[in-house]
Structure formats: structure tokens, C-alpha cells
Design goal:
By secondary structure, this protein is of the alpha+beta class. 26% of the residues lie in helices and 24% in strands. A hairpin with a 2-residue loop joins strand 1 (22-27) and strand 2 (30-35).
């Protein structure tokens, strides 16, 4: 779980700059991690979870693929949408919470 958060926070920082803000919040069956950076164009959101795909010329394309690998290893789903501020919002769902 630590590595999942590290990759998402690093990704937000690398793509959003020093002043990017990251918010973590609950979903009914998971959580979201959203930033106020430049976001990812809708037509690229599905492919950024693939190994080696990056929207940054200097990126290696492994951060979000690692996030997907970790989520899948736990039986969770991962998806991307736009945050309320126009940045990226990663949603991790399928999490079973303890009562």
C-alpha cells in the first residue's frame, strides 16, 4: 500500500510541479487520490497504466503501471478520471473495509 501511495504522490509531483496539491478521500468501496495538476487527456487515460507509457517526455512510464499491478494483486480495480480541479483523479475500488 505504501508503494501505491508513493507512486501516486511522486507521479503528481513530477507531472504537476512543486505546488501541486494531492487529496485522498473515501469512496463507497474504495478511495480516490486526486491532484490539481494539469491532468491527463481523456483519450490517454486508459493507456497510462501500461508499462512504459508516460505523458512526460522525461518519464519512464512505470509509476502508474506499478499502481495498477499493486491494485490488481489485492483484487482491486483502478481507474482514472478528472479531479474537481481539472487534474488527475485515480480511483481504487473493490476494497473491502473492516467494520
Amino acid at each position: 500500500m505504501c508503494e501505491l501511495f508513493e507512486n501516486l504522490f511522486r507521479n503528481a509531483s513530477e507531472h504537476g510541479g512543486e505546488d501541486v496539491s494531492v487529496t485522498v478521500g473515501p469512496l463507497p468501496d474504495g478511495m480516490y487520490i486526486a491532484d490539481d495538476g494539469p491532468g491527463i487527456p481523456q483519450d490517454q487515460r486508459g493507456e497510462v497504466f501500461e508499462h512504459g507509457v508516460s505523458t512526460d517526455d522525461d518519464g519512464n512510464g512505470y509509476g502508474l503501471s506499478i499502481v495498477r499491478t499493486i491494485a490488481r494483486a489485492h483484487g482491486w480495480d483502478v481507474g482514472m478520471t478528472e479531479s474537481e480541479t481539472g487534474g488527475a483523479r485515480i480511483e481504487i475500488t473493490g476494497i473491502q473495509f473492516l467494520d
